[in-house]
């Protein structure tokens, strides 16, 4: 048992220890991700990126097939599923020991990813990037909760709450619902960049250690996000150094998983801030 209250995550039968923070590499099989250098469009590019990330030290790969950036065009479920099938099958065949997370908000797509294409973790970004929360979103969330509990896969629960107080209330409610359904492995994601102003993002980052009360791993996705811009003209390509600094702050406040585009730098950040890490 460690400071997070749980010592491992069971991803596809592989126990991932979180005694030290983990690195999750981002694989975007999409033409319009906010960070152009992270986009891959062919199976060959997918495998090249996946191999490089694992070689650099990623313990998990997070595969997504639509962009959550503001103004992004919605991707039909059939197209999202087709992209994910291609990406997940290719990576699983090439790197069968590496746990794969699928980044989606659609329960039916998530189910196929887990039962047919080799995904081990469901990373649920909700519908917050596309539409405002509604009764439909609550029904979608309940369907996703029941799905992951039935499949027995780790579930990343993201919040779009603008303050830590609202976030903690929402997490408490949703974690209780998940436990009642029999869900075992839950990871909390504060949702940096979703439903928050720049100031609110940094307020939550500084208060991240308050989430330790849940005894659950906390995933932080700060990589190259617009909240890190020093000037309005800064592009994602210019935000590596601010990302490293923000990830260091997140680690000091209890982050247990860093979701990143730049794996090598994240591994080094963990080594600096958690000197006993083998990441």
What does this structure look like?
With 279 residues, this protein is α/β, with parallel strands linked by helices. The protein has 8 helices and 10 strands. It has an 8-stranded parallel beta sheet with strand order 8-7-6-5-4-3-10-9. Strands 1-2 form a two-stranded antiparallel sheet. Strand 4, helix 2 and strand 5 form a beta-alpha-beta unit. Helix 1 crosses helix 2, helix 3 runs parallel beside helix 4 and helix 7 runs parallel beside helix 8. The longest helix has 18 residues. The protein is globular. The two termini are 19 Å apart. About 2% of the residues have low confidence.
The Rg value, from CA coordinates, equals 17 Å
What is the number of strand segments?
10
Shape: globular
Secondary-structure class = alpha/beta
Instruction: Note the gap between the termini.
Output: 19 Å
Considering DSSP H and I runs of 4 or more, what fraction of the residues is helical?
25-40%
Identify low-pLDDT runs. 128-132
Adjacency order of strands in the biggest sheet: 8-7-6-5-4-3-10-9
Strand content is: 15-25%
How is the main sheet built?
A: 8 strands, parallel
> Could you tell me the mean pLDDT?
89
Tally of contiguous helical segments: 8
Topology as a string of helices (H) and strands (E)? EEEHEHEHEHEHEHEHEH
